[in-house]
Amino acid sequence: MIIEIGHFALALALVVALIQSIVPLVGAARGNAAWMAVASPAALVQLALILTAFATLIHAFVVSDFSVTLAYQHSHTAKPLLYKISGVWGNHEGSLVLWVSILAVFGASVAVFGGSLPPALKARALAVQGMIGVGFLAFLLFTSNPFLRILPTPEEGMGLNPALQDPGLAMHPPILYMGYVGFSMAFSFAVAALIEGRVDAAWARWVRPWTLAAWMFLTTGIGLGSWWAYYTLGWGGWWYWDPVENASFIPWLTGTALLHSAIVVEKREALKSWTILLAIITFSLALLGTFIVRSGALTSVHTFASDPARGIFILVLLTVAIGGSFILYAVRAPHLEGGGLFAPISREGGLVINNLLLSTAAATVLLGTLYPLFTEVLSENKISVGPPYFNGVFVPLMIPLIIAMAIGPRLAWKRGDLAGALSRLKIAAAAAVAMGALSLLINGVRVVDIAGAGGLAMAAWLAVASLSEWLDRVKATRAGTWQRISNLPRAAHGMTMAHIGMAVLIAGVSGAAAWKQERIQTQSPGQTVEIAGYTMTFSGVNMVKGPNYDAGQATIVVSRNGREIATMHPELRSYLQPPQQTTFTSIHTTFFADLYVALGEAQGAEGAFVTRYYYQPLVPFLWYGVLLMAFGGLVSLTDRKHRVGAPKRATPAAMAVPQAAAAE
């Protein structure tokens, strides 16, 4: 009975979403305040209904109600509680319930915290959010119903994919979706602005917090997914340009461009049409990512579904949402008022370069991701596009972007002094040269060493430039520094943290790509292997029992210069249901590097196993960088201007008063 309540609640949510998408929109067109006011309670009721449905689904997994098909297919009585809960979204249907839940959370948040929004804009934005909800709720109910029953009820479930039974991956989808789906709010505001025919600084102020929150969650989600792939899959890598990895990375690139473009609209009321277009593109790319993951159009270890009916439904949904918004943009954007003028050398000009490079990078990654699909449709030949393409086209675009990230904040709004900005970056340039030279001195001058040294030089350039710009703003060499630090807007602190986080991330990527060492061999008990100055002594494998798996656990003693440093215990796990074998790596980390160990299959000799050793210099900097970037976004989000809301829009009558006074 409980699961039927959830099914009924989801159907009611679809009805409420229909009301939310129609009544407030008509009310805004007619100036009917009562109809516009329907938007907020509808958004709140929709959230309550979807959360009710979500809760009933979680209950079915927790109590192992295997009469529910989804619980039977993706759960098991022996699973730990955490993985019973995360199993709800570890599949196609359940992940879509999570998707619409987060969509409803964002809509309800605007209903609750959007008190300073003009009623018409708020009604239109929530109506567009309701339309998105209609599409995905219909997709759930008509093609991906998570509440189907199976009779007779099986005594035991089939279990969850062992690769998904990990704390990191349990949290990865909710955090990633908070970013993925969060850009729907920027999209809704953009479409509402096009319908209204007005984009100004106040609009940008309203949009920025939602965009920033989505960007922060997406950054964290992508980082968490990379961390999971790194320590779980046992191949020593953290990113492979997989189609589903790209599906979240592409909207991150355009979302970053949107975040910077909105600043120009807010500060200078320029780039209005471009910012609207970026908001539409970013969410469209998030929808395209949904199509990639759930249609089966592209092969990936991450994809959930390969049902053609679902793919066609999503394709129709994409056509309506993306095509409709682009048609509206084509009709309405030319009528938007122009903004302030600015010179090419200015803060605005630097942000335009930022936008162009990020958008071009997103386009190149999108092309590489979809090219195999186009080729298969046109020629029936299956091909794959791998890391060589992505690295070859993406990295060259990042070099000028990193250079511009250091120069841009030094330029003034409207018209800047490039020579003056460059003169204040002498210390950053010196740090970059010193870091590159030191790297070459330590590692040598092979091609890979030169590439790694170049990456570290760029990281030093950006980090020192960002820090020195912040020090200049707080006048660190004068009295009263702490007072100026506290008075500086939190958004400025957050920007500095995010830029330094990007520099730290670049250092991690450079080190991992250039100087990673790998040793793969068969070891018998007592044998040793040398890697990066460490001695790895294999002591054998013992059997251990987990909550729902059996494992062979190795003992590997790590020493350096005759001194024992650590004992590592990688495992080869055999899950009982579903029967599958996975690796469980062991990582010994220092601040600067990781020693990474994975256990392979048993070999013919008594007690011999395949062992994989990786030395990963600077890999920890990847995670430091992601955390610092996300924390910078959080600090910016707490800025007072986001808490107090946007200034009231001036009405024509109010604007006439100062104009009349000026005429007198």
Give a summary of the structure in a few sentences:
With 664 residues, the protein is of the alpha+beta class. It has 23 helices and ten strands. Mean pLDDT is 88; it is low at 299-305 and 652-664.
Please give the structural blueprint.
Elements: H1 2-30, H2 33-36, H3 39-62, H4 69-74, H5 81-86, H6 92-113, H7 119-143, H8 167-180, H9 183-196, H10 201-232, H11 243-268, H12 272-295, H13 308-332, H14 347-379, H15 387-407, H16 418-423, H17 426-443, H18 447-473, H19 481-487, H20 490-515, E1 517-523, E2 528-531, E3 534-545, E4 549-560, E5 563-568, E6 571-576, E7 579-584, E8 586-589, E9 593-602, E10 609-617, H21 620-637, H22 640-644, H23 652-663
Structure description:
Helix content is 64%, strand content 11%. By secondary structure, it is an alpha+beta fold. It has 4 domains: 1-160, Four Helix Bundle (Hemerythrin (Met), subunit A), CATH 1.20.120; 166-412, no CATH class; 413-515 and 625-630, no CATH class; 517-617, Tick-borne Encephalitis virus Glycoprotein, domain 1 (Sandwich). Helix 8 (167-180) runs antiparallel to helix 10, helix 9 packs across helix 12 (272-295) and helix 12 (272-295) runs antiparallel to helix 13 (308-332).
Main traits of this protein?
664 residues; Four Helix Bundle (Hemerythrin (Met), subunit A); six-stranded antiparallel β-sheet; four-stranded antiparallel β-sheet; 23 helices; 10 strands; globular; disordered C terminus
- The structural class is alpha+beta
In which range does the helix fraction lie? 55-70%
Q: What is the CA-atom radius of gyration, in angstroms?
A: 27 Å
Tally the helices: 23
